[in-house]
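User: Watch each token:
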Amino acid sequence: MFVLKKIISSLLMPLPAMLILGFLGLMLIMFTTRRKTGCLVVLFSLTGIFLVSFQPVSTRLLMPLERQHSAFFPVDESIDYVMVLGSGHVVDDQIPPTSELSRTGLMRLAEGIRIMRMYPGSKLILSGYAAGTEVSNARMMAKVALALGVPKSDIILLETAQDTWEEARQAAAFVKQKKLVLVTSASHMTRALNEFHSAGLNPIPAPTNFLAQKNISQPWDKYTPKAKYLEQTEVYWHERLGLIWQAMRDWVSKDYTSVSSTSETPSSAPSSSP
């Protein structure tokens, strides 16, 4: 189910979806008599690729999602754990450890270490599975954290969690009622908090990796389609799909639980003995 979910969501991203439409339009032009329809499909595809790579569009989509939670500010209470959610990585001994982490992963880790150092005695929880490599994402982040001076005794690894649902439940097993700060990308924070709340935790949000910015004054940067703006649109759409999936999963689970509890309830009281 996890792999199928990833494949489907990848194909539904704006760029793959628009490219698929474009190729379908080309096939209509080349192999059928419906050339006008094919031209319209190709035009729609090209227009879509332009729009999703256009800063005014990508910022308008992503910024409201990213700004739902403010940046972390020190709180007047002790913090027991700072948890950094996993992201992508590669394994390559020819490059520095900081380059083996994805940009998203490195920004999350840097924010987690920054917050951890505000609270002496707190522990750093790093999560993420191997994703087809021989080293888990959690262990790769730990490698970078050690290189940045975090003591090994202050690092806790969750190496088998494949998604945020699993990360939340594994964290709940030992965090319990202690104070937890949750570090993840600003765009992902709402969905992550939903999972942690459903697991019985109430973490303090610490969003990072903000991508959308309004204060772009140079017209050649603002009005020229760019890959970084395409990334923003894809991040937005990825999170929207995730929230839809989350809502559907919770609805099905709630409905199934309701049906199960109803079926276990006796239909009538037992009759008294004659």
The chain has eleven helices and five strands. Strands lie at 81-84, 123-127, 155-158, 180-185, 204-208. Residues 51 and 246 are 27 Å apart (CA to CA).
